[in-house]
Write a structure and sequence with these properties.
The protein is an alpha/beta fold. The chain is 35% helix and 22% strand. It is found in: Nucleus.
Length: 262
Amino acid sequence: MSDPISKRGLLLGLGNPLLDISANTDHDFLEKYGLKLNDAILAEEKHIPIYKEMAENYKVDYTAGGACQNTMRVAQWLVKEKNMFAFMGCIGKDKFGEILESKAKEAGVLVSYQYHDTLPTGTCAVVITDQGKNRSLCAYLSAANGFSREHLDKPENQTLINKAKYFYITSFFLTVSPSSIMQIAEHACENNKKFCMNLSAPFLCQFFKEPMMQAMPYVDILFGNEQEAATFSKEQELGTENVEEIALLISTLPKKVNFQEL
């Protein structure tokens, strides 16, 4: 019989933790903050009050969110065994941060957050209208942008990194700490572990292609949808919009290998 303790942190994800704040509202609320039906945007200054207003004036549901943390949370739910999936990211020292950490742990995720002294916890307003038919998302990254590579060097986090057999990075994290991504990628390569990355969004393939391509030689498994693949192909001049052809061409890109273990 397998030892559950040995599986703790089997997969480690790094990303932008956000507290999802969901509430049923109306079209007047959407118009107040200039939101469109089923749109997903980054918060501007005019959107900042939306999170407090939703928390104070509506019946809200809180969820440990952010693309990478969501993946860890759902994967944890599938396997039914707590602490198999670990996550690192940066949150604030505030009420929303406390709720976020509580919700992540409640879901069974093994979290090791970095805590920012001044920035508030990142949040995502999930504005639900028309009896659940439409959802509009407004994300405020805030403290999530404050993750630093030094967090990886803490002894307890080195333990997590060393124990993990698989790593998962979303390309959203390219906007925050490319050096942290490279540290994890190099560790995975040197220790013959699996390094997985998600293209995450077309704009990342377009505007963050330099750090993306620095990490690409270390990638063992790459995730992406059709639109992301098409943008990647265009930016990397692969010469095709056919998803199957793009996948095959990506598989031929240079790959880092630990020759000492061959």
